[in-house]
Design brief:
Number of domains: 4
Number of helices: 13
Helix content: 40-55%
CATH superfamily of the largest domain: Histidine kinase-like ATPase, C-terminal domain
Strand order of the largest sheet: 2-1-5-4-3
CATH architecture of the largest domain: 2-Layer Sandwich
CATH topology of the largest domain: Heat Shock Protein 90
GO biological process, one term: phosphate ion transport
GO molecular function: ATP binding; phosphoprotein phosphatase activity; phosphorelay sensor kinase activity
Order of helices and strands: HHHEEHHHEEEHHEHEEHEEHHEEH
Keywords: ATP-binding, Cell membrane, Kinase, Membrane, Nucleotide-binding, Phosphate transport, Phosphoprotein, Transferase, Transmembrane, Transmembrane helix, Transport, Two-component regulatory system
Function: Member of the two-component regulatory system PhoR/PhoB involved in the phosphate regulon genes expression. PhoR may function as a membrane-associated protein kinase that phosphorylates PhoB in response to environmental signals.
Radius of gyration: 40 Å
Bound molecules: adenosine-5'-diphosphate
Largest sheet: 5 strands, antiparallel
Pfam families: HATPase_c, HisKA, PhoR
Number of strands: 12
Shape: elongated
Length: 433
């Protein structure tokens, strides 16, 4: 750069010297000097104007030719502009490829602004959600997908779990919608057709419900006859042992069928919750008394309710949920252990907790505990007579009451099962107090 600057300096010096010399020759050296400098300034202004008009017209190939520093300046701008343009072309090719592959996706992909203004969508969006291109561009997504569940979901900004709705253009099509915030707080919305999966899921539920229902009567008959057989085999120890074993296993099957039927009923979302005011203090006292009988004095069972709590919900379902947690605590805690049942309120929630100092549960099992038939290996071996459905039922009931089940545990220290319900479920008179 220094050498360019040096050459330019030489050039201006030579020009000024030449004009001064000519001026001197005519006895007007100063005028010669002024003419030389003016010519140099005018030449620079001309180069600037060429540069300006070249940049203005964006005709890259019509590069102005020039000498010295200006020539170099034109060359380097030309090179940079070329690189910029080829970079732009490369990026455009990548964007085109991404758009082509997204357009070919079977899932609907929609890009929208933070407030739901539609920016872009792929072809599948038109067949799954009925968007029309280009007419619907710039519309609000909630004007096109009007399902109140979707509107609430989109506006909630809590997209942790996907939403399942029916397609606005085909009520028989079931869609799973996910929203992902990206970039400048924009939204990427995807919709997947899960009609087939939903259909299989319904078949699975119907199958379990039908089998359980069909097994109920034969099992009742079997257990009835076994009781009669036990009554009639008073003196025969060998037969009595066999009948007792058969009775235990048949009762276990009956429990399983019973739990499966409860679970199926809870999973059928069409069945509405039978809501009534439930006095939790009374309910928990009742379950604690049952747990004491079940424990046979082997555990210390403490009930600690800080507040009077009356919440709206299904008495039978809540009883079943809390009872599962409390009886589990008794079942899995060694004798001499301590079980505390706590109930309290805070500004946002109703809390019920069951805390034991039993063997605890390894962290790796915790996410699976509420799955159907999931039982921690140890409990399988010790054969507690459980069905592995208790926590699945409890979780369903809590979700039906808009609540959340939390499980914390440490091996060797104990476990804490906490149920949290929205404070809005608290009976009206308590909320006002
Ligand atoms: P089950 O009918 O086997 O009790 P659940 O669904 O109620 O089925 O519980 C699932 C598993 O979670 C149990 O098999 C047991 O291993 C574990 N579990 C539940 N509650 C406790 C607890 N309080 N302490 C230790 N383990 C527990």
């Amino acid at each position: 750069m220094l050498s360019n600057w040096y050459i330019e300096l030489q050039r201006v010096t030579l020009l000024v010297l030449a004009t001064t010399f000519i001026g001197f020759f005519f006895d007007h050296a100063l005028i010669g000097l002024i003419v030389g400098l003016t010519a140099y300034v005018l030449w620079n202004v001309r180069q600037m104007s060429r540069l300006e008009s070249w940049l203005q017209h964006q005709e890259l190939d019509k590069l102005p030719l020039s000498e010295g520093l200006w020539g170099k300046l034109f060359d380097s701008i030309y090179r940079q502009e070329k690189e910029h343009q080829s970079g732009k072309r490369r990026l455009q090719t990548i964007i085109d490829r991404i758009q082509q592959s997204t357009a070919a996706l079977q899932d609907a992909v929609i890009m929208a602004e933070y407030d739901g203004t539609l920016e872009w969508w792929n072809r599948s969006t038109e067949s799954l959600l009925g968007f029309r291109s280009p007419d619907d561009g710039g519309q609000q997504i909630t004007n096109l997908i009007r399902d109140p569940d979707f509107v609430e979901y989109f506006e909630s900004e809590d997209y942790a779990t996907p939403l399942v709705i029916n397609s606005p253009i085909n009520p028989n099509m079931v869609l799973e919608i996910s929203v992902t915030p990206f970039g400048n707080d924009d939204r990427l919305i995807t919709a997947r057709d899960i009609t087939h999966i939903e259909h299989l899921e319904r078949m699975r539920k119907d199958f379990i419900a039908n089998v359980s229902h069909e097994l109920k009567t034969p099992l009742t008959v079997l257990i009835g006859y076994l009781e009669t057989l036990i009554d009639y085999s008073d003196d025969n120890d060998r037969w009595l042992r066999i009948f007792h074993q058969m009775q235990t296993q048949a009762t276990r099957m009956q429990d399983l069928v019973q739990d499966l039927l409860i679970l199926t009923r809870l999973e059928t979302t069409e069945i509405n919750l039978e809501e009534q005011p439930v006095n939790l203090n009374y309910l928990l006292e009742n379950i604690a008394a049952e747990a004491r009988t079940y424990s046979n004095g082997e555990h210390q069972i403490i009930l600690n309710c800080e507040n009077e709590i009356e919440m709206s919900g299904s008495y039978d379902e809540l009883r079943s949920a809390f009872s599962n947690l409390i009886i589990n605590a008794v079942k899995y805690t060694q004798s001499g252990g301590r079980i505390e049942i706590k109930g309290y309120l805070d500004r946002t929630s109703i809390h019920i907790e069951v805390i034991d100092n039993g063997p605890g549960i390894d962290q790796k099992h915790i996410p699976h505990l509420t799955e159907r038939f999931y039982r921690v290996d140890e409990s399988r071996k010790s054969d507690t007579g459980g069905t592995g459905l208790g926590l699945a039922i409890t979780k369903h009931i809590i979700i039906r009451h808009n609540g959340h089940l939390g499980i914390e545990s440490r091996l060797g220290y104990g476990s804490k099962f906490s149920c949290e319900f929205p404070i809005a479920l608290l009976s009206q008179h308590q909320q006002l107090a």
